[in-house]
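User: Teach me something about this protein's shape.
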Amino acid sequence: MKELSHKLIFIQLLFGLGLIQAAYTQEPVQLTVEAPKIVTSGEVFRLSYSINAKAESFNGPKIEGFLFNGPMLSSNMSTQIINGQVNQSVSYTYNYTLQATREGVFTIPAASAMVKNKSYSCNPVKIEVLKAGAANSQQGEGQAGTANNGLSADDLFVKVEVDRSSVYKGEQIFATIRVYTRVNLARFGEIKMPDFAGFWNQEIPTPAQVSLERVNYQGKQYNAGVLRRSVLVPQQTGKIPIDPFEIECMINLPRKNQRSPFGDVFGDSFFGSYETLTKKISSPRVEINVKPFPPNQPAGFTGAVGKFSIQAGLDKHEVSTNEAVTLKVVVKGSGNIKLLELPPFHFPADLEIYDPKITDNIDSGTNGITGSKTFEYVIVPRHAGNFDIPAWTFAYFDPSAGAYREFTSEAMQLRVTKGANDSEATIISTPGKEDIRIIGQDIRFIKTGRSALRKISHPFFGSTGFWFSYLAIFLLFILLASYLQNKFKNQGDVEGMRFRKAIAVSRKQLAAARHHLAANQSDLFLEALLRSLWGYIGNKFNLNLSELNRDSITDSLGSKGVEQETITGLIETIDSAEYLRYAPPIGDADFQALLHKAEEFIVLIEKSYRR
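Assistant: First, the predicted structure itself:
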């Protein structure tokens, strides 16, 4: 037993050590190189090789065209523990100190290192050496100019750089706003962006802190940094100008007219006196030539430009009446996908189609505008049968090939069976039966014995009261006859009966909807709410259920002088209720708001009739 216990402890220790070993995440071995791209003749700079593992040996490059010293080895190790996961990183750096001796473009070959008997190498490095005299003269000009608080136009400027100056309408253009400087930039002030009139503009995220790097521009050395990047999509043809970009720059310039006793020893950059100069600069105007689309545009072309792939299909091919089915179209690719529109589908007339739900998943980066755009059409068949959705063609223009591309979907079939609760019963109300009582006196029984009779001096027959009573009975007879005539007439007038009973029936169904909402029966609530709205409109305008649609609502209400705002609100309320029947659940507050809107629009329509 004791031996078994020792074995279990040993196994647990091994398992724990295995977990600890697995917790350490090891990155793949990489050898990288870092060096400036541009230097001046005589300048001293550093060439560094870094590897994230201990190397058994390091084979440095063969350096020609430079004076150099090295390599000097340094190391750095860091450990992080996040949620029990141990991340350990190690870096070994081999540093060379180089000095450029002559002008030209030089390539330093790749270096290599051996780690666990495996060789790793990095890329070669290309370094451009510029003439030192040009740089020094420019610095002299800049320093001399500071005495007069002035700068040369070549010392600091900004440009709007585009990757192409001639494109098709709808084709992407990359616009980069870059600042070039040969002076000490302290910070930036007010910025005025161009409005990019005639273009659709999508800004590409750039770091808030502008990073400057050495570049060779027209044979001179500058520090350059990107201020903004944008993707522009021209929306019209012809020559479209890009207005100047304006920026305020704060520059630190040394004062040469005030000498420091430490300046000769430590240099003006340490103890020297500085002044800050504010300078506003603007970019030159840029013009883009936008070409129109080639002729013979396909029928399915709606202005999409780029490279796309398309998928289209139904989520179900067999449904019951009043059961929703979704037609989903997904467009993926790069181009003006944000502005993309689909050509219309040709749906059968017996299918009720809702406006598509559009979802964008779009990214703007160095590759331009890429991603996907999804269109979801909700289809509700109202009648049973087999329906064919014909083939549909989507066309786009490929600017790289200068040609149109077409995608044609397959024809889709939808089989609709009659649902269990499908009925087209219209509301026909029959008036309730009423008892009509005629008040009078029955025949009295013959009394035996003496009766208390007395003589009436003024007989009722022929008197004024007699004639008034006779006239009253005659008028009552006429009123009763008129009432009965109207009653029998109304029983045959179904249209009029539906019109008069519309508001009462609607209120009864709204009360039922309110009851279902209080009981958290969302499906029954929406069913009762839609029955109330559709029933009210059908009864008010004598429309059968098969005739009820958004067009008939608009025409019927508009012909009666109902305001367009009320018509639109009523249709949107119906659409919302229809959509929520097939959408994910929402809160009670949203259902309450929907019920309130339905009641409000019914009241507004009734008021329109009273006017």
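Now, about its shape. The CA atoms of residues 215 and 221 lie 6 Å apart. The mean pLDDT is 79. If you'd like, I can walk through any region in more detail.
User: That's plenty for now, thanks!
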